[in-house]
Design brief:
Organism: Pedobacter mendelii
Largest sheet: 6 strands, antiparallel
Number of helices: 5
Pfam family, one: NLPC_P60
Radius of gyration: 19 Å
Number of domains: 1
Strand content: 15-25%
Keywords: Hydrolase, Protease, Signal, Thiol protease
Structural class: alpha+beta
Family: Belongs to the peptidase C40 family.
Helix content: 25-40%
CATH class: Alpha Beta
CATH topology: endopeptidase fold (from Nostoc punctiforme)
Distance between the termini: 79 Å
Protein name: NlpC/P60 domain-containing protein
């Protein structure tokens, strides 16, 4: 006689530690003042990076900032991150508000990456490796290359 014994694996409880990067990013999203911004980010999260891209088939960092600022805040930015950096009033990191821009220089002296500040040290951007994602601005990898932050004129 053949018998089959099934065991449930659902009895173990899994919890997300409240100090993990994922939970902090989720908190940043939950604390957004603009529900339109929340929906915009959710709609774009995971869209892959494509240099020069401006749609759901692929988007680059400046294209993402361009579309977000236009759709959420009604602001028309230049299309290229270097030019976007010239269009902002400089602010210190501690004074950033939801929707402000953060600029990075990964390849030397010129601005070559942009993200949109959310809150509590988090920002959203189109990462070359991970696509559109909410990330921690306080990570050393970003702190080393952060060159400017501010609000649109």
């Amino acid at each position: 006689m053949f018998s089959l014994i099934l065991t449930a694996c659902g009895s173990k409880k899994y919890t997300v530690k409240s100090d993990t990067k994922a939970s902090k990013a989720a908190d940043a999203m939950a604390n957004l003042k603009s529900k339109q911004l929340y929906k915009f980010i959710i709609d774009w999260t995971g869209v892959k990076y494509r240099f020069g891209g401006l749609d759901k088939n692929g988007i680059d960092c400046s294209g993402f900032a361009f579309l977000l600022e236009k759709e959420i805040y009604g602001v028309t930015l230049p299309r290229i991150s270097r030019d976007q950096a010239k269009a902002v009033n400089k602010k210190s990191i501690g004074n950033l508000k939801e929707g402000d821009l953060v600029f990075f220089s990964f390849g030397g002296n010129n601005v070559d990456h942009v993200g949109v500040y959310l809150n509590n040290g988090f920002f959203v951007h189109a990462s070359t490796n991970r696509g559109v994602i909410v990330d921690d601005l306080n990570l050393p990898a970003y702190q080393r290359v952060l060159v400017k932050s501010g609000s649109v004129n």
